[in-house]
Write a structure and sequence with these properties.
It is built from 2 helices and 4 strands, in the order ββαβαβ. By secondary structure, it is of the alpha+beta class. The radius of gyration is 13 Å and the shape is globular. The protein starts with a strand and ends with a strand. GO terms for molecular function: nucleic acid binding; RNA-DNA hybrid ribonuclease activity. InterPro entries: RNase_H-like_dom_plant, RNaseH-like_sf, RNaseH_domain, RNaseH_sf. This is RNase H type-1 domain-containing protein.
Length: 90
């Protein structure tokens, strides 16, 4: 399934287990399919999480507002078959 093409931006918030904001991300990504933009936001959040040494060896829970992006993203996590709004712990 494809979304519609258009000028797109991504955004997100990285929080710790207590809800404290660690990082806010926002970026223009050009003309993109809306689902691809959702996936780019998830990927960027994962990259930023990985760059924080203080978060090494900690679980990551990804939350998205796109069920389609969730389903696509889940395909990249071996053994994960949950299709909740909380994508899963990775």
């Amino acid at each position: 399934m494809k979304g519609s093409l258009g000028l797109a931006s991504i955004g997100g918030v990285l929080r710790d287990h207590m809800g404290k904001i660690l990082c806010v991300l926002s970026s223009h990504v050009g003309i993109q399919d809306v689902i691809l933009a959702e996936l780019l936001a998830i990927l960027r959040a994962c990259e930023l999480f990985g760059l924080r040494p203080n978060l090494a060896n900690r679980p990551l829970t990804v939350i998205s507002d796109s069920k389609t992006a969730d389903s696509w993203f889940l395909g990249f996590i071996p053994g994960n078959n949950s299709h909740d709004q909380v994508i899963g712990d990775i």
